[in-house]
């Protein structure tokens, strides 16, 4: 903390006080907090903790009826990562879920577990910032297994991402919160889910989706996070919601389980967390 403070003073002297956030810094903030890319793309140790020295070098394996896919190496390593991709190609993967027309599985769509249907909401500045940050990651050589597709890729359109965002919508906390919740794909996990399809229209935030643990144990069930006072979190204080999101502690003090990215959300700025909570308060109650 102290060191960061000193660096800020020095920088603000150099830049005459006007200190705009550098794009890579903004990108790093998004990637390592609300978007939690490393929750999927970083390998884990035997305790299930992400390994910082191997950040973004490829990680989780997802086995579903539609595909078996490993979160790829997204470090700038030229051979095993995305070091040979142009910025436009990286952006296309992020917001359209499409691979480049060269290299591994050229031109093939990415499995829907990569949340491109939410990332399409990214404002152009934020998309640029994320790409700028990805260029700063340490290249790591690590080859991941090719995916196996058993059904065509299908992405459930998320209404707020389809409608899009603009900076004028960020005047109100609820507008800023809606954007963060969208790029954080919170409602992908927390909405009603049946036969592999999200029901954002009738089941937004209702919970119930089951996440099996990687070791085969029962895993977790996504909670109802609508504003319903009993079934949802309508009766929780802001402090209780903030604690659940950033510390992974339930209202009753229970330790919440994966796959929610509590450790990443811990780095959220207080103001962003407040905006997210403001938006959650607007989710219509559902039993
Ligand atoms: C829920 C898990 C998950 C999250 C969160 C996630 N990804 Fe992915 N991502 C995947 C998976 C799985 C694939 C590969 C899908 C396939 O092989 O069909 C992928 C593919 C990619 C690819 C294509 C790489 C390649 O070699 O084909 C890029 C680039 C990428 N992700 C970047 C990101 C970034 C940047 C973020 C955060 C802003 C992110 N991902 C968040 C799971 C995730
Ligand atoms: C990858 C799936 C996933 C994502 C993404 C996700 N969550 Fe969760 N969340 C869960 C699961 C599963 C639980 C329940 C964990 C348990 O009961 O042990 C949970 C629990 C919660 C809780 C506690 C509710 C309760 O009744 O205990 C809150 C609040 C919450 N999530 C909010 C959010 C917000 C806000 C976001 C986005 C910033 C988010 N979640 C993103 C899966 C997810």
UniProtKB/TrEMBL annotation:
Keyword Signal listed: yes
A family per Pfam: Cytochrom_C
Gene Ontology MF, one: electron transfer activity
Location of the Cytochrome c domain: 22-138, 172-284
Highest taxon, organism lineage: Bacteria
Protein name: Cytochrome c
PROSITE patterns xref list: CYTC
Keyword Manganese recorded: no
Keywords on record: Heme, Iron, Metal-binding, Signal
Organism: Bradyrhizobium erythrophlei
Signal peptide (UniProt feature, chain positions): 1-20
